[in-house]
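Reopening this one. Same input as before:
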Amino acid sequence: MSPLKLKAVMASFAHPHANSYANCLARREDVSVCGVYDDDAQRGSAAAKKLGAAYDDNLPELLDRLKPDFAVICSENAAHRRDAEACAAAGVHALCEKPIAHTLEDARAMMAAFERAGRILSVAFPVRYSPPVARLREKVMGGEIGLPMAASCTNHGRMPPGWFLDASMSGGGAVIDHTVHVADVLRWILAADAVEVFAEVGNSLLHPGLGLDDAGLLSVKFEGGFFATIDTSWSRPKSFPTWGDVTINIFGDAGAIELDAFAQNALCSDDRAGMTVWKGWGDNMDALLIDDFVRAVRCGGPAPVPAIDGLKALEIALAAYESARRVAPVALPL
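Same output, byte for byte:
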């Protein structure tokens, strides 16, 4: 590892979050984005040109040639295991986009590969790094609302395009896409695991003919009796001024706190966008996530967001699908 600059590879731009992570890395003086892998040559070549990096459509060969310190995996959910195992085999640390995988089997295999390699596998849960969310955790853990009892949460969004709508690549629709952020934050705030999930899942409810779940409402019970509802629906239209939301209203026996993780914005009418949009002015949670991961790579660990946390959040989403299928609560762990 270079004592000055770390070498990074972007492993696919299939997920739109890759653009933000790449921009965060490119702005750093202590990191060089030296390579881009993507199985879509047009997309990968364009990203590599923008970053001034090498492009290859073969990840193992790229890793062998460039020998980077770490990779950021933003491929389709079903490809996470393939790309993560390539990184582990090359002795490369990895930050993996959420969800960690589309199956528990893949998630466990990824964890095992990095444990054998002695390298860091961290999951991209940037909502943890939202300063309001971090402050909420401090207040709850500090006893400001007494004993936490319940929460009402949302992670709404617009319906995404492309492979997100192919269950073989994504693992599902809105439920797997938008459960994991809030599920992770709740586990992190409470320092407790979920023990039961009941869910109502709507297929083509908001987008007729979609053939995939586009709406979901989860009721999640945690250790100690705390329970939360999570609305994961792709319920925001294309004309909505931003991509969606993350809200958490948490109630204790001595008080309550309402949180909107994306309230730091200005409303702007933009002729170029052809609509009114929200322009955020708060801290960049993606940049804070990248800061923490780069720090962990330099220090040799531990992973800022351990892979087991990614698996536990995925487990909640998969239990929701099973609950909807059974029309009954599902006990965890699966």
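So the earlier flakiness isn't reproducible anymore. For the record, The first helix runs from residue 17 to 26.
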